[in-house]
UniProtKB/TrEMBL annotation, chain A:
InterPro entries according to UniProt: ATPase_proteolipid_c-like_dom (IPR002379), ATPase_proteolipid_csu (IPR000245), F/V-ATP_Csub_sf (IPR035921)
Predominant cellular place of this UniProt entry's protein: membrane
All residue ranges annotated as the V-ATPase proteolipid subunit C-like domain in the record: 58-117, 144-203
Molecular function per GO: proton-transporting ATPase activity, rotational mechanism
Gene Ontology cellular-component terms listed: proton-transporting V-type ATPase, V0 domain
Residues of the signal peptide: none
Cell location: Membrane
Function noted in UniProt: Proton-conducting pore forming subunit of the membrane integral V0 complex of vacuolar ATPase. V-ATPase is responsible for acidifying a variety of intracellular compartments in eukaryotic cells.
Native source species: Cymbomonas tetramitiformis
Keywords, sorted A to Z: Hydrogen ion transport, Ion transport, Membrane, Transmembrane, Transmembrane helix, Transport
Keyword Transport: yes
Keyword Transport annotated: yes
Name by which UniProt lists this protein: V-type proton ATPase proteolipid subunit
From TrEMBL, chain B:
Function: Subunit of the V0 complex of vacuolar(H+)-ATPase (V-ATPase), a multisubunit enzyme composed of a peripheral complex (V1) that hydrolyzes ATP and a membrane integral complex (V0) that translocates protons. V-ATPase is responsible for acidifying and maintaining the pH of intracellular compartments and in some cell types, is targeted to the plasma membrane, where it is responsible for acidifying the extracellular environment.
GO cellular component: proton-transporting V-type ATPase, V0 domain
Protein name: V-type proton ATPase subunit
Keywords: Hydrogen ion transport, Ion transport, Transport
Family (UniProt): Belongs to the V-ATPase V0D/AC39 subunit family.
Complexes and interactors: V-ATPase is a heteromultimeric enzyme made up of two complexes: the ATP-hydrolytic V1 complex and the proton translocation V0 complex.
Record SUPFAM superfamilies: V-type ATP synthase subunit C (SSF103486)
Molecular function GO terms recorded: proton-transporting ATPase activity, rotational mechanism
Record flagged with keyword Ion transport: yes
Length: 212, 351
């Protein structure tokens, strides 16, 4: 595939990715020595001392923020089509509110998980060297991963439900027999977000800041 | 980005896309046409149209109803809907909708210039113009004596100005020159519109390129057939063919050299997409060919409704509405002239 076919941005992305990959392999191969191209031992130090509260805060904000972004995006995709289609077929408005509610549910998942994650965050004192205990660090990472999982899952789920909901409104306006059939597809789309929520809850289930 | 219009399309154009699909559902169906074909008078037609999406649009018309009144009122409905969408549209849809009107503008310019040549009254001509193709200085078209004046006095301010660059000559306007001007303008218009759609990208580019390819080829074929036996030379003919379309460039070479229907047919047989069209050419009658083109246009327009998040539906809607008006005109004419036997020949069913 030549540069003309994929466009310049995609081409340069490929170039940068391949160069980074080569550098990565180069760094891994001789990581034990201090004069390697990438000093992994030093890089680890950067992450080792990241405050677990930063990570948990990021996790909570991603869970709610990305979920609401997905839900809002879905609602505007559905909503604008719904309004346009309802001009000539006003009967569809109340039925197609279901599509909007499906999008809204995505935001509710985000709120629930964000509350769950926020309650997991407890105050602990740092160790003498300024580091945190292994359990606190693990909790920080778990909450971050959980928040990211839920956030991104709900973002794409919201968009998915929105696009299907928009098509649902358009087809319902033409032929009301199609509404239920497309609603089934929408339910499947909506289930995608739940998968993220389940994994997110499991991920954060054992997160404890305090050593017991 | 192809395939990702779904994310951003609705922010600006979701409402209008849904609206145009709503308008589409108001088009007459095969059942409606069957009812209309049973009518015995124009008043019956008025009654039947009253039960469709047209509603009471003929309510205030005095009773001996004319065919021209029906057509005028139908066109007016189309124009109202189109203007409504144009007012709501934001860029780049607004430009896209403007592009759709340029074709009508070209036709109007040609109509007025031809009419003036035959010393018809400008006001009468203006009445005949398509309302979608009106622009500010259209009344003054009649004063122009040659193309240079036409451009300098009137069209320089109209949206058609860029298309004129290829046909500014000092020659006096006569039938032949006007026809050449029309085709040069259409050529420039197709090429420009095609480029614009390519720039929009995504599904719009894909579908519109397909449709404009067809329209350009249709113009190429019609031009070939109409210019047979005229003084237009082979090279001149080739210059008028739009540089877009499936037939460009190999097919156009062949068409430029064609002097009868069989040769045109032989060229078209290389393009399996146009099978429905050249299969009708065996009879050698132009009206049949026209109908084949209309049917193909409607078939392609309906295809645009299967896709979502693209501008093609607006173009398709315009095509289908135009076809509906032609159908209604045919039905009304047949009913008025008592030619019931031929009534089904001229209808292109849309749904």
């Amino acid at each position: 595939m030549g540069i003309t076919e994929v466009g310049p941005i995609a081409f340069y992305t490929w170039v940068i990715c391949s160069i980074s990959f080569v550098l990565f392999l180069y760094g891994v191969n001789i990581s034990s020595t201090s004069d390697s191209f990438i000093d992994w031992g030093y890089l680890y130090q950067l992450f080792a001392f990241v405050d677990p509260y930063l990570l948990s805060g990021l996790g909570v904000s991603m869970a709610i923020g990305l979920s609401v972004l997905g839900a809002a995006w879905g609602i505007f995709i559905t909503g604008s089509s719904l309004i346009g289609a309802a001009v000539k077929a006003p009967r569809i408005t109340s039925k197609n509110l279901v599509s909007v509610i499906f999008c809204e549910a995505v935001a509710i998942y985000g709120v629930v998980v964000a509350i769950l994650l926020a309650t997991k965050t407890e105050t602990v004192n740092s160790l003498e060297n300024g580091d945190y205990s292994a359990s606190s660090k693990a909790a920080g990472y778990a909450i971050f991963a959980s928040g990211a999982t839920v956030g991104f899952a709900n973002l794409v789920c919201g968009v998915c439900v929105g696009v299907v909901g928009s098509s649902c409104a358009l087809s319902d306006a033409q032929n009301s027999a199609l509404f239920v059939k497309i609603l089934v597809i929408e339910i499947f789309g909506s289930a995608l977000g739940l998968f993220g929520v389940i994994i997110g809850v499991i991920l954060s289930a054992h997160a404890r800041f305090k050593d017991e | 980005m192809y395939g990702f219009e779904a994310l951003t399309f609705n922010a600006k154009d979701g409402y209008l896309e849904a609206l145009v699909r709503g308008y589409r559902s108001g088009l007459l169906t095969a059942g409606d046409y069957n009812n209309l074909c049973q009518c015995d008078s124009l008043d019956d037609i008025k009654l039947h149209l009253g039960t469709t999406d047209y509603g009471n649009f003929l309510q205030n018309e005095p009773s001996p109803l004319q065919v021209s009144t029906i057509v005028e009122k139908c066109t007016q409905k189309l124009v109202e809907e189109f203007r409504h969408m144009r007012c709501q549209a934001s860029e780049p849809l607004a430009t896209f909708l403007d592009y759709l009107t340029y074709g009508y503008m070209i036709d109007n310019v040609v109509l007025i210039v031809t009419g003036t040549l035959h010393e018809r009254d400008v006001q009468d001509l203006l009445q005949k113009c398509h309302p979608l193709g009106m622009f500010d200085s259209i009344e003054t078209l009649a004063v122009a004596q040659n193309m240079r004046e036409l451009y300098r006095l009137v069209l320089v301010d109209s949206p058609l100005a860029p298309y004129f660059s290829d046909c500014i000559r000092s020659e006096d306007l006569d039938e032949m020159n006007i026809e050449i001007m029309r085709n040069t303008l259409y050529k420039a218009y197709f090429e420009d519109f095609c480029q614009f759609c390519q720039k929009l990208g995504g599904t719009t580019a894909e579908w519109m390129t397909d449709m404009l390819t067809f329209q350009a080829d249709r113009r190429t074929i019609n031009l070939t057939i109409n210019s047979m036996g005229t003084e237009l030379t082979r090279d001149d003919r080739k210059k008028l063919y739009p540089a877009v379309g499936l037939l460009y460039p190999q097919g156009q070479q062949g068409l430029a050299a064609s002097e009868d229907y069989d040769q045109v047919r032989a060229v078209l047989e290389n393009y399996s997409q146009y099978q429905t069209i050249y299969s009708k050419m065996g009879f050698g009658e132009t009206p049949l060919l026209d109908k084949a083109f209309y049917e193909e246009e409607v078939r392609r327009s309906i295809g645009s409704l299967d896709l979502q998040f693209h501008y093609g539906v607006f173009y398709a809607y315009l095509c289908m509405r135009e076809q509906e008006i032609r159908n209604l005109m045919w039905v009304s004419e047949c009913v008025q002239q008592d030619q019931k036997a031929r009534i089904y020949d001229g209808i292109v069913y849309i749904f």
